[in-house]
TrEMBL record:
<dbReference type="InterPro" id="IPR036890">
    <property type="entry name" value="HATPase_C_sf"/>
</dbReference>
<keyword id="KW-0472">Membrane</keyword>
<feature type="domain" description="Sensor histidine kinase NatK-like C-terminal">
    <location>
        <begin position="331"/>
        <end position="422"/>
    </location>
</feature>
<dbReference type="Pfam" id="PF14501">
    <property type="entry name" value="HATPase_c_5"/>
</dbReference>
<feature type="transmembrane region" description="Helical">
    <location>
        <begin position="6"/>
        <end position="24"/>
    </location>
</feature>
<protein>
    <submittedName>
        <fullName>Sensor histidine kinase</fullName>
    </submittedName>
</protein>
<keyword id="KW-0808">Transferase</keyword>
<dbReference type="Pfam" id="PF14689">
    <property type="entry name" value="SPOB_a"/>
</dbReference>
<dbReference type="InterPro" id="IPR039506">
    <property type="entry name" value="SPOB_a"/>
</dbReference>
<keyword id="KW-0812">Transmembrane</keyword>
<feature type="domain" description="SpoOB alpha-helical">
    <location>
        <begin position="234"/>
        <end position="289"/>
    </location>
</feature>
<keyword id="KW-0418">Kinase</keyword>
<feature type="transmembrane region" description="Helical">
    <location>
        <begin position="156"/>
        <end position="177"/>
    </location>
</feature>
<keyword id="KW-1133">Transmembrane helix</keyword>
<feature type="transmembrane region" description="Helical">
    <location>
        <begin position="189"/>
        <end position="209"/>
    </location>
</feature>
<dbReference type="GO" id="GO:0016301">
    <property type="term" value="F:kinase activity"/>
</dbReference>
<dbReference type="InterPro" id="IPR032834">
    <property type="entry name" value="NatK-like_C"/>
</dbReference>
Length: 427
């Protein structure tokens, strides 16, 4: 009788934990009469199992009862089927982990005095199991579902793959628990089950590896697009600013011509020349022309201005046609990151008088050559390991070059760092 009461209390506590956990999906409780009857029926099964079921089939009945309770309570909060499948496997694995830990603790302390059929064994192991499960449920709730924030559902193949390790864990731990309570299991079937479980897990890991690499490629592409977009937005902002300045100059131009004409009419030739020179200086365009690609041209001007502000000598030579088979945005991002790396290395030089960057972009036949060199501090070899992950990084630059079947080479000569890139078949 005491054993039955303990099992009923354990089931009721577990049902409460499930209700607490799945409530994260919806604040509305849809506990219908049908679900109440199902839970009452499960409670009755737990009671009858304690009285009449043999020790060999009792664990299997408990698993079925637990699964039905999980599904019933999860559906009460409208948990999507995909999420329900994933979390049922996870929670079942947690159940087996908790029971295995409690058995291990019991074996370490009292195994020599009590066997698995003893009432004290049931009380102690059940108490430890429920304590561990309560702690794990609270941890899951706090980490994943704080303030009723629901995680985005994954697609079914990903969810199935993610459950591979929990499923194998369930198989192994369940077999361990059966052996602990002296339930005979056929070794051949057990080995086959574990072998197929491990095979399933490895196939799932391969699928996850493929999905992760695809996801990382997409993230890299988004990073490139965002970088390119930032260049374009800066260009548009600068263009708007220039247009506003030109509008202001045009607005004042009429008055300036009137003044200029007045100076000429009074034969004030020197004053007229000076006034004309001052007016002409206001119309000078600060941007230099490097290429007809407006985004790349603005980028080079912007980086040149940054170099001037940092007192870094920056020499740029560009020979580039309009028709090349390279995405202009990607080209701007590639060149922009090469220049950024050179600028950062130049700013860290102990002697700023040595700060100098040279960039050559040259098209010949169906190839595009990009050469950049800058002075650097050879003492930065160690600290470079930390900085190499900033921005897009050398590995991503190499990947961009590889996408265009290009060649990448970097090397040093004394205190000069050089990078040479050749993109093939650009026509």
């Amino acid at each position: 009788m005491t054993d039955t009461i303990i099992r009923l209390l354990s089931f009721l506590v577990y049902a409460f934990l499930l209700n607490f956990f799945f409530s994260s999906w919806s604040v509305a409780n849809q506990l219908s009469l049908k679900r109440i009857l199902v839970l009452l029926g499960l409670t009755g099964i737990v009671s009858l199992t304690a009285f009449f079921a043999s020790s060999s089939i009792e664990p299997f009945i408990n698993i079925i009862v637990t699964l039905i309770a999980m599904i019933t309570i999860a559906s009460q909060y409208d948990v999507p089927n995909k999420d329900m499948f994933f979390w049922v496997v996870i929670l079942l694995a947690i159940n087996f982990i908790s029971e295995s830990i409690s058995l291990a603790i019991f074996d370490a302390v009292l195994s020599s005095q009590y066997d698995a059929q003893n009432l004290l064994f049931v009380i102690i192991t059940t108490s430890i199991t429920m304590t561990i499960e309560i702690l794990m449920f609270l941890a899951l709730k706090l980490v994943f579902f704080r303030n009723h924030i629901i995680l985005e559902s994954l697609n079914l193949p990903s969810l199935v793959a993610l459950t591979s390790i929990p499923v194998v864990s369930i198989i192994v731990l369940f077999s361990f628990l059966l052996a602990k309570i002296n339930v005979t299991i056929h070794s051949t079937y057990f080995v086959l089950l574990v072998a197929f479980g491990v095979l399933y897990m490895n196939l799932c890991i391969l699928y996850l590896y493929s999905s992760l690499t695809k996801h990382l490629r997409q993230l890299n592409q988004i990073t490139l697009q965002n970088k390119s977009l930032s260049y374009e937005l800066k260009y548009i902002s600068e263009l708007k600013k220039s247009q506003e300045q030109l509008s202001a100059i045009r607005h004042d131009l009429k008055n300036k011509f009137i003044v200029f004409r007045g100076l000429l009419e009074h034969n004030q030739i020197d004053e007229a020349k000076n006034y004309l020179q001052a007016t002409t200086d206001q119309l000078n365009v600060r941007q230099k022309f490097y290429t007809r690609d407006i985004i790349l041209n603005y980028l080079l001007n912007d980086k040149h201005e940054l170099a001037n502000q940092a007192n870094i000598k920056f020499e740029i030579k560009v020979l580039l046609s309009e028709q090349i088979n390279v995405d202009k945005d990607i080209l701007a991002v590639l060149i922009g990151n090469l220049i950024d790396n050179a600028l950062e290395a130049s700013k860290r030089l102990p002697n700023q008088n040595e700060a100098e960057i040279s960039l050559v972009i040259k098209q010949f036949e169906d190839k595009l050559l990009i050469d950049i060199k800058n002075h650097y501090n050879p003492g930065e070899v160690v600290t470079r390991r930390r900085r190499k992950y900033d921005g897009l990084g050398t590995s991503n630059i190499k990947r961009i070059v590889s996408n265009y079947n290009g060649l990448y080479k970097q090397w040093t000569e004394t205190n000069v760092y050089l990078v040479s890139i050749i993109l093939l078949n650009i026509n």
